[in-house]
Amino acid sequence: MPTDEQRYFAHNLRSMFTTLVDEGFTGDQAVTLLCRLIDPQPARPSSAERSKQVSALLAAAGQRPPATRSPVDDRAADLWNPPATNPGAPAHD
Question: Where are the domains of the chain?
Answer without folding.
Answer: 4-38
